[in-house]
């Protein structure tokens, strides 16, 4: 039992608050959660302590930046407060007054994702998604996934014609049909690798086996006014700004996307979020976390090479930097 934690919890209870200890999921446990007597199922404030678990975190970013940021920005707790042991020993009443004031402020904030139907062992994640404390959340990777605006959704193959369209690409009508199919694919999956774009486009015309010659004949029809192809071999919608695009799309549990079919821009963007949350991370750890974001479970030589390309792109574009053995967000 953590006596320091229990002492603070008991003191808050003496002030009429509903308190639970050691609440949460995996690495993101809250030392103390606080709720009102009339809504004990709706914790409004998280209190973090300089506990042994805090001291064991490997970097200053992990200890001081990561937990509070995850709880406020990603898990949407209305208030997150810290109590340092020296401050508690020096003037416990001042610390309790500060916590009570913060909690009063939290009660006046509009609801940001907490569900009255859930018990106090639940933690809000994202816009209304909840998990029980008994469920597994695997640390920073899961926090990164919840930051993503949307997951990767494969294009659902639609019928744009028969294979005879692909056999008559000298026809304006055939060219128009192929470009329409390509537009649909890029809108759904862009940035998309040229190989996947060609295969999906051919599938729209009932052709599922695509040889290099057929692939090239389709890609030659790419409408440069609507699409742009980058040096990495990916096609983007022309309205997308590659320089400012900072999104990434985690793969779902049933979605398979080859690492080589993930743009270096998207890999870099995921890496930036992982690095930002960690406060500094080794290359090996960054690679492991990144491939997990995209649904992978192991690192092969080929996957590692692709992840290195994403990391190098991040460094080359001035978004990431290497300091000794660790990767940091540039700046």
Task: Please provide a written account of the structure.
The protein has 331 residues and is α+β, with helices and mostly antiparallel strands. 43% of the residues lie in helices and 16% in strands. The chain contains 13 helices and twelve strands. It has helices at 3-14, 52-55, 60-74, 85-90, 92-107, 140-147, 163-166, 172-189, 194-203, 212-219, 264-278, 283-293, 301-316, and strands spanning 18-25, 28-35, 45-49, 79-83, 122-125, 129-132, 192-193, 227-229, 234-237, 281-282, 320-323, 326-329. The strands form four sheets. A four-stranded mixed β-sheet has the order 1-2-3-4, sandwiched between helices. Strand 1 and strand 2 form a beta hairpin. It is elongated and about 85 Å long.
Give the total of beta strands.
Answer: 12
Q: Could you spell the SSE succession in H and E letters?
A: HEEEHHEHHEEHHHEHHEEHEHHEE
Largest sheet: 4 strands, mixed
| Overall radius of gyration | 25 Å
Task: Provide mean pLDDT, rounded.
Answer: 81
Taken as a percent bin, the fraction of beta residues is 15-25%
SSE diagram, text form:
Elements: H1 3-14, E1 18-25, E2 28-35, E3 45-49, H2 52-55, H3 60-74, E4 79-83, H4 85-90, H5 92-107, E5 122-125, E6 129-132, H6 140-147, H7 163-166, H8 172-189, E7 192-193, H9 194-203, H10 212-219, E8 227-229, E9 234-237, H11 264-278, E10 281-282, H12 283-293, H13 301-316, E11 320-323, E12 326-329
Helix pairs in contact: 6-11, 6-12, 8-9, 9-10, 11-12, 11-13
